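Homework-ish question, so no full write-ups if that breaks the rules, but can someone show me the predicted structure for this set?
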Amino acid sequence: MNWKTTALGIAAILLLLIILSAINVVFGYTAEYIKITIPAAQLVNVALYGVIYEDKVAIYLDIPGTVSSQNVAIERTMTVPTLNLKATISITMSSVTMSGVGISAWNLTSTSGTLSGVTMTVEPAPTGVQMNINSGTMNNVVAFAWKVVASQIQYEGLTAKITLESL
Amino acid sequence: MAFNSVVKAFYSFMGYVLRFFLVLWNLKKYTLTSFFALVMFMWLVVPHLTPRMYAVIVLQLSILVTTLFLMFLLTGVFVVGGIEDGSIPLENALRVFIGALIANVIVLATLCYLGLMLMGIAPPPQSLPALIALANAMEATPIVALAITIPAVVGYFLLKDKWARFRAKVPFWGSYLGILASFLYLYPIMRDPPIWYFAGFRFFSIAGVTIIVSIFPLAYPREAALKACGLILPLIGFLSWFIVWGGMTLGSILCVLAGATLHSWRPREVKTFLATKPSSTKPHT
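A: Not a homework solution, just the prediction itself:
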């Protein structure tokens, strides 16, 4: 094994992660989905698309402005077959401010909130229903996302923990 | 002068560690069997004997014991196997063993830190991209560990000389790690096929390029081709972060390792003086 190539390659990857952390950019795909919980979000100029392709439908939430919220959680669940356990890794942030957010999700819910300036239109495939919201507040937003992009994200109180549940 | 004596003492100490390891490896029929029995006991029996409130600790301990078992097995198969078939010259054996030991210590330290972090004892890195990358890697680690262990163990224990001759003729490990990396690039859409419809092109394109660059040296194992592929693969590994978020993190790391392995591979003659008796490696005094 060429140790110089190995060291350079791994150092480049670590450097990239450090740079992404420093400039507060997050983007990525995940296997299955991650569960994102935003307890209260003030939203401005939000666009929600129901994307249709062949027989599959997904939701794309586009928030170009800034979103601030407390206690945001990102959860990832895995199964441990021999122990019959479901392991959930939770990454929580006590305070988050993010902008340029794009969430591609299979499911997106909010228990309460107020919306104003709502326009709903139907576009030809692959864009289906399109909903534009000029401003609003959405409480307890839960998204089961498979791709998340945040061009700027600032956070405080980052914690990670694992919880186990019986299957 | 003092530095030289410290280095000498370190090498001398590592020489004793290598001898101790070789003694254990020569008794592999017993050491591997008992180690494997302990792993099975940790996964299948201990969880049913301990209260649910200790489930996290039991899980971490089971992972730790399994990792130690795999480290012992893979160090034996790769390092002792390499000495036996002549791919690691005897004069380099100690240096390679120290390299393997350092790699094992890094893996073990990372694992212990992750375990302590997830139990809330150690602080997490204050970086969201790093935490997401770690969570992705944790999901893919069992598959990667199995995928590396199976051919190494089957080749060493069952195919013996044929395995050594095959690896002397073609750059198996470099290509195999590259193929494994391309599989990890496709992992998210294999777990969740509907993503094909929305982002399939980028997944298939990077996995396709990686698989072509990985398989090419098997068909054409010439120095120029190996050097070219050995440089292209680490570059793909780095770029994969912008296309498929590093293929569960481990995809990009395996791509770098595949390139490094291909870059330094050379065809060689198999020395048969040790390869004929793989079980009779004695510590060199």
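Now go work out the reasoning yourself. Hint: The first strand of chain A starts at residue 26 and ends at 53.
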